[in-house]
């Protein structure tokens, strides 16, 4: 099974769990800080253990700086621990993640994702 993480929409976490023939999706209205809890709940509802994941895809290039950074950090950590490949996707590619499985499997399991952002981070202090 493969997982796709999409945090490109504000206050929405979209997850897909799929293989070549089937796909299950969940969209949760939640802040980006609830990403790990949302992933855990999704895995639990599907009776899925983390070691059953063969690769992770993450939507980058759209969404907030923090959401993108969190999604790539979670994927990189999970990939490191489980020794599985990772793949960064555009929003367009995420429409059909199953078509990207072969690209995912071509990635070495020790390669990490770099976040691509849709804009510059807003790090200024509000006055």
CATH homology-level superfamily: ATPase, nucleotide binding domain
Just give the CATH class: Alpha Beta
- Give the helix tally: 3
Task: Tell me the span between the first and last alpha carbons.
Answer: 48 Å
The averaged pLDDT comes out at 90
Strand content: 15-25%
Describe the structure.
The protein is of the alpha/beta class. It has a single domain (2-105), classed as ATPase, nucleotide binding domain (Nucleotidyltransferase, domain 5). Helices cover 27% and strands 22% of the residues. Strands 3-2-1-4-5 form a five-stranded mixed sheet.
In short:
This protein has three helices and five strands, in the order βββαβαβα. By secondary structure, it is an alpha/beta fold. α2 links the parallel β4 and β5.
Question: What's the topology here?
Answer:
Blueprint: E1 2-6, E2 12-18, E3 23-29, H1 35-45, E4 55-59, H2 65-82, E5 86-89, H3 101-105
Parallel strand pairs: 1-4, 4-5
Antiparallel strand pairs: 1-2, 2-3
